User: Fold these one by one.
Assistant:
Number 1:
Amino acid sequence: MCTADQFRCKSGRCVRLSWRCDREDDCSDNSDEENCENTGSPQCAPDQFQCGNGRCIGQRKLCNGANDCGDGSDESPNQNCRPRTGEENCNLNNGGCAQKCQMTRGTVQCTCHTGYRLLEDGRSCQDVNECAEEGYCSQGCTNSEGAFQCWCEQGYELRPDKRSCKALGPEPVLLFANRIDIRQVLPHRSEYTLLLNNLENAIALDFHHSRELVFWSDVTLDRIMRANLNGSNVEEVVSTGLESPGGLAIDWIHDKLFWTDSGTSRIEVANLDGTHRKVLLWENLEKPRAIALHPMEGTIYWTDWGNTPRIEYSNMDGSNRRIIADTHLFWPNGLTIDYAGHRMYWVDAKHHVIERADLDGQNRKAVISQGLPHPFAITVFEDSLYWTDWHTKSINSANKFTGKNQEIIRNKLHFPMDIHTLHPQRQPAAGRNRCGTNNGGCTHLCLPNSKSYTCACPTGFRKTSSHTCAKSLDKFLLFARRMDIRRISFDTEDLSDDVIPLTDVRSAVALDWDAKDDYVYWTDVGTDSISRAKWDGTVQEVVVDSSMESPAGLAIDWVTNKLYWTDAGTDRIEVSNADGTMRTVLIWENLDRPRDIVVDPVGGFMYWTDWGANPKIERAGMDASSRLVIISSNLTWPNGLAIDYESQRLYWADAGMKTIEYAGLDGSERRILIGSNLPHPFGLTLYGARIYWTDWQAKSIQSADKRTGQGRETLQGNLENLMDIHVFHRHRPSVHTPCQVNNGGCSHLCLLAPLPKGYSCTCPTGINLQPDGKTCLPGMTSFLIFARRADIRLVSLDIPYFADVVISINVTMKNAIAIGVDPQEGKVYWSDSTLRKISRAALDGSQHEDIITTGLQTTDGLAVDAIGRKVYWTDTGTNRIEVGNLDGSMRKVLVWENVDSPRAIALYHEMGFMYWTDWGENAKLERAGMDGSNRMVLISNNLGWPNGLAVDRAGSQLLWADAHTERIEAADLNGANRHTLLSPVQHPYGLTLLGSYIYWTDWQTRSIHRADKNTGANVILVRSNLPGLMDIQAIDRGSPLGTNKCGTKNGGCSHLCLPNPEGFSCACPTGIQLKSDEQTCDPSPETYLLFSSRGSIRRISLDTTDYTDVHVPVPELNNVISLDYDSVDGKIYYTDVFLDVIRRADLNGSNMETVIGQGLKTTDGLAVDWVARNLYWTDTGRNTIEVARLDGSCRKVLINNSLDEPRAIAVFPRKGYLFWTDWGHVAKIEQANLDGSARKILINTDLGWPNGLTLDYDTRRIYWVDAHLDRIESADLNGKLRQVLVSQVSHPFALTQQQDRWLYWTDWQTKSIQRADKYSGRNKETVLANVEGLMDIIVVSPQRQTGTNACGVNNGGCTHLCFARASDFVCACPDEPDGKPCSSVPSMQPPIPETTHASKKSQTAASRPSSSTTRPHTSLETTEGNCSGKEAGQELCRRANGAVPATSGEGLHVSYIIGGLLSVLIILLLIGAVMIYRHKKSKFTDPGLGNLTYSNPSYRTSTQEVKIETIPKPAMYNQLCFKKEHLSHPSDSLSPFLF
């Protein structure tokens, strides 16, 4: 490689750059003389002479008598050549030469040694000072007589050319901001990588090499951010008070962050995490841009492109500030320091130049002045400069000494901004940390200077000593600027405004403060809320955020800790405790856009401005007493108010009159203080002798003398959106009031008032004071309650005004729709259709609980039977009407047939009726008994969207609101005498009545309205501006409830007692039949379907006809696939492929426990051997079939070869058989003994995706669903007598069968459970529709798990596993020994017990041995029993290895053998006859026909692709993947089949 001052010849040889185009072939291949036409005159080397014609010749050729230049310029008379004499000879006195002499053409020619140059006398030699030539050495240069030596700074080494320096360490990387991202590029290889992306507008940039951090500023977000150099851990460092942070620099020695902001005209400093932020320089700054640090010297340098562009520097503590350059500058953008070269470089985009100077500004020189369209930022490394250019969108480089060797490193960039060289030598660690290890002893900031350091304080904080800062601010100006709230400290001289770090400030208007708790309060008309935080921004919280429309004024009563505010939207003045509790309306009449408010706890008065149609300033007691207008003339827009306690005056600003005025506190002696140069005053405050105000139009904060208006000053200018202003201080007058002693005896609010009263008690909104004048009633007696999607609110009817109060329930509501109230307990009930819950809480917001959390979709209607203590609801999604106890227990479906879209529901307990509206295709209004009996349609014509419904008991009429016909109508309780009360009403939704009024919510007007219930007249607006209004109820807790029809003992019912017109009836929860006594119920159904749907396990009773699914409350269900049950212990077993576990729980959902928790991948099939107490499962991920005891012990792999995708599995304990489906490459159904032996393929032809599998133990047939051939088939236990039962099934997944006649299956495509006759395949019908993610299904029935085998008693005498087989049984040991001896020989001979049903009821009988036992291991048809958990506890399950058949004793009796042979012969004859019959009658579905198919399941994603195949299906299908990497969501695990 050639150095920066060398030229590379084509041959690879390096020659001096100055020899290029000197008309001499220095390269020997003439490549240094090519393309020289436009180079102009070359510059000759120091030991050369430049001829008049531009040619360079050696100095020794001067005055040698020969015309070496060709133009005679090297000889006399052009040169002062000595006259030649013939006596000259080098042998005589060295020819008179000082050093070297040689004879040329007979004359003496003096020359000098290398490192010297010949003087004008042609004989003397003088040392050449190579160090004087710029760039001769890269960094350091030491000259000596006749020689020189280049040297390098620490961290660099001299290259072989002995002149240039190479930085030690890694390869340099150029780090640059690109607006939308931050990238890095290798300058020598142009490798280009992304560091951070998805940025808004990244401009300035720097890094901290040792901490591996990158910092950048974003001028769109107005933030300074940082991240690790690998792009991780992005976080905000400075997020407030920035306007245009265009420059940024890191002090890597003292760990400080410096930045410039051309918007605020400041240079600030902070710690690397943004703490202890300080305005360092603020005076005489206009548009500071680039900034560079020299931490070793303790200095900072910056450019300013304001009206007087300049480059300045100062110490890093802000001292010793000086201008380095202020001429020939216009847009000085980039700035960088060459630490090794002790120089600075900068770019000027307007002058298109790169310049350099010494660090003190001396020796300024242009490096590049051509080919720079718009340079922006610059960095330096070794001998090269690198810069970004906006115009060319590129990064370029050049030699830092000469500006030559220009290259484009990278072009076609998005928008290159700041640039830095990422290398340790750009942040040399050699510098001394002036602050040492203890931060210089400073409590806050330690800032270095050229000699030592200075302790500094964050902006606004005063220094209490040379090293310490005040811990808090004592005096500061507080002002709002819509999007932020700022302070200007009066404790320091700089008067810099500092943004209080708050979140979500959208449109702050009014302010106040309380020094006692260090709180700042503000109103926000963007969020319609009042918030507070400590003055430093911590402990931020929303105080009031409901029922406000434009809170524009705010005042703190610092004596009793009250918060007063005005609301120009609701035209109210309200008060609450300082934390927002006990809120109440003080003034609600005759207000027209109230604006500012101030309170005077000393005098007990409050004052406010009102700038409505008749602008005025009013006064009242702080309890709203003694209200009086004090100023009402010559006002236009009275804005800010302030009280001067010293002079007992009231000051105000009027933006319309453009004045600041004052008067006495009673309005007398009114004077104009300032009447000129006030374009639009807004906020106003007083402190000391000064008055301060904000001005919208002047965009400034100003002050003047409060008595004279003279001495006007501008504290801050150029501030947009200025709002309220206050001075925070700690000298507010203290006042002793009656409220300070025992809260004045008040139960709730104690408010100050003018003397003589001094105070008064008041109650929260809507609640009345008791006659004692001090105590409030416990709550509202008569009120409206309504849902507003995200909250529930009350409107009291006990008071003379309408004000809505949010019930503060500590829960997030998403879509609260229907609402009901239990006046007896004072609780509100509501449905949330997004959360799919019904919940309840006390009217004060406490005691929140969810009462119904499953089986809901869109609960549009809800009614509380407060007399009967029940809750009723309608569900438009499930199309059901249900009832339950108030706690959600004993839930029952009342109406499920012929329901389209039920909505509103209303009850009349005394009459035993419930009424509901249905706005389905045929809208109607129906009635039934409250037990679901005597159902009838009352009204079915001229209805559109019947939303609200109410029963008028007093008037014996029904009222309903119809949003489609835009009417509120009425009829009597039988539907007769129908008439219109109100029309048109725009979009009524909820409807209720109380007393002589009806109330309704309206979506269109976003309001609550009221009218007379009999005539519909006198319509008034109750509350407006309430988006999201839903249901509404009117309640009077004072009226008696009525008598419960069920009496005191629940009508003698064991479960539900429900009223009807005749009296009442007893009822059972959904799915359970009432016993013949018509009073009592079983705890659960006898026969039911149990099915899984990913996140739930549900049951459908087969004892009743409603087929309603009821959730089994098993916890922690994520992705349940397979199910089975054990009737002996009453347990559900299930697989969860998200958690990869097998678990079990009681049939009621309790006692959930993990059975198998390790070593599972995708457990698709599960089967319980209820006799031997074993659990079998298939694992598609591992392609195994495994077994374990029901408690998970004694685990063993049974089959792990020749399995492709095993899915469903079923056991036949009585026969000792195991069956499974495999839908791998070659689909098949197989059978083996329960120990895995005698394995054989039953069916392997005409199969696609055999999913579900079930056994009929009575008819001894297997049934399966094929999700590819879309049919359900059956065969006998040997795979013969195969029959297609149901064809054209969309996408069946699992199936089960009921002993009597039905097959049930789940279907993915129709999202339903269906059934058909298991003998004929006919009578196909849907049992349950619209269920997402349907998986396994089983029938739970006492008749299902019957029969026994030799393992049924005492585990067959086996220590660990007992497996029944077709004619005997075996003992086996687990794969992993457990340390307990495992015997493969039975320890006792199991007897032959009586045959019983292995249900819970027969558990004792099943385990009782029979006295007639004669043989140990006979055919399994005749052996029964079970191994309960008791035997397992007695260590009858011990682990070891191996499995051997148990011996059969002395052999079978001869009569048994003969009988068996005859039986086999008869069976074979029957089979033959059936096959002949089927061959004639039945034809299989052609698998080649195209039909609608789903891709078969993989349980790792929720998407199931539907493909319409119009071509014949291929014979082979790719297998399913159940890999974990396909997991898309914890609750969704089905991925599509891949073709």
Number 2:
Amino acid sequence: MGDDSEWMKLPIDQKCEHKVWKARLNGYEEALKLFQRIEDEKSPEWGKYLGLLKKFVTDSNAVAQLKGLEAALAYVENAHLAGKTSGEVVSGVVSKVFNQPKARAKELGSDICLMYIEIERAEVVQDELIKGLDNKNPKIVVTCIETLRKALSEFGSKIITLKPVVKVLPKQFESREKAVRDEAKLLSVEIYKWIRDALRPPLQGINSVQLKELEEEWVKLPTTAPKQSRFLRSQQALKAKFEQQQAAGGDEADGDDDDEPAPQVDPYELLEPVEILSKLPKDFYDKIEAKKWQERKEALEALETLAKNPKLENGDYGDLVRALKKVIGKDANVMLVTLAAKCLAGLAAGLRKKFGTYAGHVVPTILEKFKEKKPQVVQALQEAIDAVFLTTTLQNISEDVLGVMDNKNPSIKQQASLFLARSFRHCTQATLPKSMLKAFCPAFLKQVNDSAPEVRDAAYEALGTAMKVVGEKAVNPFLADLDKLKLDKIKESADKVELLGKKGGGGAEKKAPAAKVTPPAKVAPPAENPARSSGPPKKASAAKSGGPPKKGKSASALSAKGKKVPETKEFIETELSIEVCEEKSAAVLPASCMQLLDSANWKERLASMEEFQKAVEQMDKNEMPCQALVRMLAKKPGWKETNFQVMQMKLHIVGLIAQKGSFSKTSAFVVLDGLVDKIGDVKCGGKAKEGLTATAEACSLPWTAEQVVSMVFAQKNPKNQAETLNWLSNAMKEFGFTGINVKGFINNVKTALGATNPAVRTAAITLLGVMYLYMGAPLRMFFEDEKPALLKQIDDEFEKMQGQSPPAAFRGTKKGGAEEDGEEADEQEEDGGGAPDIMDLLPRSDVSDKITQDMVDKMADKNWKIRKEGLDEVAAVISEAKFIQPSIGELPMALKGRLNDSNKILCQQTLTILQQIAVAMGPALKQHVKSLGMPIITVLGDSKTNVRAAAMTTLQAWVEQTGMKDWLEGEDLSEELKRENPFLRQEVLGWLAEKLPTMRTVPSDLMLCVPYLFICLEDRNGDVRKKAQEALPTFMMHLGYEKMLKATGKLKPASKEPVSVLLEKARAVMPAKPAPPPGKAGAAKSSSGGAPASKSGPSKPKPVIDDYDDDDPEPETKSKKVVKPGAAKKGVLGKKAPVTKAKDEEDRSGVIFILVPNGKEQRIKEEKGLKVLKWNFQTPRDEYVDQLKTQMSTCFARWLQDELFHASDFQRQVKAIGVMGERMEDELEGTVSCLDLILKWFTLRFFETNSTVLMKVLEYLKQLFPTLSRENYHLNEYEASSFIPYLILKVGESKDVVRKDVRAILTMLCKVYPASKVFPFLMDGTKSKNSKQRAECLEELGCLIENYGMNVCQPTPAKSLKEIAVHIGDRDNSVRNAALNTVVAVYNVCGDQVYKLIGNLSEKEMSMLEERVKRSAKKTPAAAPPPNRQAAERERLQREHPSNPNATFMRKPAQQPQEEVPNKLNQARAQNAEREHSHPSIPKEFQLDLDMIENDHTRVSELPDLVQHKLEELLEPIMMPEPKIRSVSPHFDDLHNSTASTINFVISQVASGDINTSIQALAQIDEVLRQEDKAEAMSGHIDQFLIATFMQLRLIYNTHMADDRLDKKDIFKLYSCIIGNMLSLFSMESLAREASMGVLKDLMHGLITLMLDARVEDIEDGQQLIRSVNLLVVRVLEKSDQTNILSALLVLLQDSLTTSSGSPMFAELVMKCLWRMIRFLPETINSINLDRILLDVHNFMKVFPKEKLKQLKSDVPHRTLKTLLHTLCKLTGAKILDHMSMIENRNESELEAHLRRVVKHSGNFSGMKSDRGTEKGQDDRMSKAKVSDILSEIFKKIGSKENTKEGLTELYEYKQKYSDADLEPFLRNTSQFFQSYVERGLRMIESEREGKGRIQPSSTVIPQHGLDSGSVPLNGEEMKPAVYYERLKILRQRQGLENNSRAQLLQQVEGDSGPTRPITSLLSKPSVASSTDMLQSKLSQLKESRESHFQQEQSHSHSPTRSSSPAANLDDLKKRLERIKSNRQ
């Protein structure tokens, strides 16, 4: 029971994973109760069990597993998160539950699977169950099959995808286990219920006995379709309906449940494709062309066997199809023709849509072969052509079929009609549009009158079938001329027709006969189409002839006008005799009127006309005999009336009759002659035009215009001709262009253009201008043969019309004519075509005869030159023809072969030819999309940019003619995307992203592309990913979000999540579908001629695009159309412009920069990870611009981005920059967040020539950089590298004003970016070819060196100066001068040393330089301020800028003769102290002023002021502020007694973004830590707590401290709580040692960063906080696990040295910590894991080899590492080499070699201290001779230049061993200088050795809140602050200094070289000895004045040659110093 009591107290989730099975059982039981109790499916409680659920079902204990399964089932049923576990849980169920003997376990496992299906995880479950079928355990297989059966039975075939199940089913019938076979049989029966006979083909291969058994079972099944009985969570509406039906009695509702019938399963989809091309006999192509028919037969039989496979793998069947086509077309053996036809049928049936590419090639051949009369041949050909039809569309083959409808052979005509009849049965109203009927019906009508009865019968059948499919109303208009007998036969045929998918024929279904047979793959027609599709076109018969029809023809023309109006007789009225007309007129006109009509007196005739007019005005429309009335008007004198008044009245009456009555074309024929004759009359012309307009309104403009134009050009009256054309121009504007017979006009217009009368020509050109409004560019093609002068006039007229929209039609719409054409236009648009009518009007020639076999063979030749000849010939044929018919013979296959030609020039030529073909062929090009269009897409994958560009141009030309629909149908496009070619993918996706938004509907086959789109979203190529993301919303707008999300189910788990996220993003920007065209009448009004207008014509209605939708914050954005920047082409309608403008102005009032959290950081990360293009180019390419647009779209206001990237108007860009400048102060935060993008955009402008924009950019930059400087913002590397190089390009601009501005900007730039980093960019600028740029860059370099000293010269002064000196020899004078000035600037800083730095110059160049130096020396003194003023200036600067570390380095002006070169550095510094204020100090190694040493040696060096510290505070105890928070609940202990979850929760709150929450959590933890009995509860949580703590530190540093809204007192309180907790924690060694290395590293990083944070000083009591942190760091170093902390410090040091952007101060403090650790190594060595430490050192030395370490600015890291290793060797000896076991490859670093050297060295010279007594004994026995030899050798080394340091070290070691050794004999004969040198060297080595264990000094600025030295003991003794205070006091008195300069951080007690450090040392490299050691050494010698004085003069550098006496030889010293400095370079 003791054990039980342990786990009984555990929480439920811990019990569930306990090692004791009883605990788990109990946990499962409690979990089950809990799961049933939780009501909220999104409760956080569910999350605890997310990772445990698999363990529930896979428990090793059977009893516990059973309960676990119950709990898991409850979880899956109730938890919202459950879906995430589906994969692992179902996998566990299959492997660990289905093999259990207990039936209950299997049942529960199966229920869990079904429950997962219910929560929308069907695909995952199904995949896992199918995987289970491969398990070796038959129990698992049986249960998996059973579960699949249950799932199918309950959820149905919609939810359970049957294809993968059927695929594995045959294998289960082969199992040796009977149970598996039986279960497979039951599953087959269940599947059969759902898909019926579709299951038969996949199971044909199983055992015949089993198949027979299955057949028997299938027969027993009920015929009714099964229904889904269990529903998904998303199908609750269906579930409710199902339950209602069940309650109502089930069967009653059966008939109503047809809302959503189960999809018909195609057996083809369940089959696996078979690859047959590789299985063809090797000699197949040889045999099929063999002379012996038997060999040909063998080849075909072999192919027939392969083609019988029901599903074939896609491949290149081109050669095979060509071979079969040749057999069918040319083989004389009919048996072989039959075989070939069967093969072709097999290929078509097996490939289905994939065969569509070849359909156009074989259909003409098969149709021609129908001339064969043998039944078996005809039957085979019928089967073949029927199979081929199913792979393509009727539209694609219509031209080929129409081509044989006029064939002389009746068999061909008959079979063509029968083929169309069979084809129509597969059609619907959508796939058999009126445009198709319009093409076929005339051909059928011709065959109806054919002499051969079989041809007539076939035509009747075809027309009957068409009537059955689309309805009588749609077909009747085409049958107007047929007599009743023939119409009855057609209707009889229609009644007999049984459409596919329907059970019975008959004409009962009138409204929508084809509505229910729409195949699922096709788009169903709109509901209103059937009802509205009645009515004929306007020009059914009139279109046949260009001239005026004869009287006899008019009846048929009139009959064709039949409309929906019931009184059709009025429109097809016959011609009446004159007697009948008089009789009818007399009935409605007054008698006097009739009598006076032909009176000789004009007044009587006028009175008669007046009466006539009154009578007509009063007549009712239905009573008006129009024909009779107009015949009366035409009665003598009729239209020859001489009196103009009478004539005017007569013409007016004609107009009235036409307007008021039912005016037929018969009546119109009576009046048109008269109207046309009078149209040119001055007095009557107006009335004649009115009459014509009224006639046109009654009879339609197309018909009227055709008659009028024909009549007027039959006359020779130029006045009439001109006025008729003018009338027609106006009429077109009033009526619109719909239905106009362009061909009829073109010939007459050409006649008019050639007329001698200029008025006629002018009128013709005006008419052409109006036609151009509707037709666009294609109109010009008709007139290209005209004379150039005339053509110019036409072009001028067209140019006037350019950009104008056609006026809205307001006449002729009431008759419904426009409705008809508008409807046709809709149909054509739905079909994807643009508007083909105009192009159809062009006269086209058949070029198939000109494409000879010789030409085709040439194109396939091996020699590229011959292939080129072939292509040239083809291009010539097409150019000559201009417009061609779609039949182009063998050309498609020949050109397809050239598209993948190895010669890219030929490939491009082929693409050019295809563009020609597109223009020449027009819309009929559609039928070649599959055969020739798709190969163009393949070329988009070419590696050459120019080839891809040509392919894209060709593709766009094709799409312009064909529309998009044909390209998206079938699998061809998805097959192209399947190719793993990044070029192809990015081009195709970009193309789709552009085209899809313009489409209203798309074929369902687009869904096939989605899987490849998803793959592209994760492509390794960035461009592909980008294009895929652009295309994603456009796919979604057609397919829908849900459908695409469901498609992600087939992705791998790793890909599913990121793709889903991208789908969610795309959903937010998904464009809306284009609005459907306006209503029918509206269509006629707005676009009138919209149907025939070409795409290039201006009449195509354009969507109104709101450019600024993206900025709309409302959720409606999702439904709005998002327009890409490139969409500017698609203009905006003028009338909508004001709305857009208002929206524009409204949007511009918002913010211009959108703050995206971490947006800039993410962009930096992407560029570093090469996910986007690096901003580095010679000239910006389009992809860079596109990338920038994409990046700016998320954080720039949409309107601003559009303005910035405006293509044509630069003023828009100028205004945008102006707005950015105006709002800079207001939106400074936004400006900073987008700074990288702003600067990148400016770089693009630098490459443009527009000076206005450039000046505006520079003006903005001059405003930007000072603003950033005031805000203390510094450019990062990413921003600088993408901007500065391009700014420097403009420094070479030809305009002075630009250069001046750029130089000013570069100066400002140094305030926000270190000058030392600008320097390399300028150095690169000196390599430019532009001499101005080189000169300006050199001048700027000189300024930098003058202002900032030699430290700016990067990488080294020597290297930089050599490169600068090269330009002294430049051929350009300005460059030479600039280079010389720069070198002089260097000379002014470092004197004669410049000659060594610049390297070797030619004699001429050197003389130039020396001359310039001399001239500079003479000019400069006058400019220098007087010494006193300069000193005063320096003091002022020190007072004003005490924080500038360099301000104290000002030297006094050198007292030197006038002719010597003065040192300009003082002057430069005084002028630029403020500029340098923001830059970190750098060791000024090259600025050692020897002149100062030389001239100022008589006085004590001036030292900088020390910082005034209140050192007494160090002795005061640190007071931690008491957090003012609510007290912890008194029940804290009771409620959460040592519960890990409580601690976890509290720790998680420590990292909270809310300060109060974090403080409260820290207080709770502090309470635990302060109580020793409770502190142990934190054990095991230390890492977690420390992680939360440094996360909070990071949050404060990055966020809270930058937030001005937060009270700094709150931040201080939070800091205090954190440090208090840490101090408590690290006071307990047991807890402190639990901290791991990684966590300690991050903690130390956070603490040191806090110490360096200058902002902390601004907080009240900030200094106290820093000291607290200091104390905490010491405690961490002492109490942590010594291995972990030492390792952490080493890694941290490595990271800080690796990161160039990090502060050098950071590395200094890390090294101080390391020195402290080294000092305590003797005490801690036994607890340290040396193997790990050496591994870290090894890794450090790998990254930083010795050479690289020495290259660092400071040598302290090198010395730190050496000291660590030396100490370890000293403590462990040779055993250290045994601790390298963890290092795999020791050769990767220098560690082992270094250790061996140290061990050997210590063995030779410095034995351990414990052995010294022994060694001393040995010394006594050492012979004097040997001693003499050793010392002689040592002094030789000291005397040599190379080994002097080594000699001194050996001498020191020797003196340590033999303290009584006498050195006098060896020093006696040396100079005083050498003796003092040796003495000084030994003292320095002693000082260094003593300080080994202490923290080394910094060579750069260290903040005053460094490690508190008060806590660092020296030499093993605790040094109290008072000691330091005393020593500092003595030094201050000695030097006479005041501690008034806060800037001197270098002189801090705890971190640097003390106040006695002379100026020369501050300007040189740091010393070897630590600053504290040197301070101690000096203090001990203060009483000795000589030594003290010497110590003050002594430098801390490595130079051992400095004199200690004023009388030392200064020349010698100067030479040595120069030599040392040159060596250091």
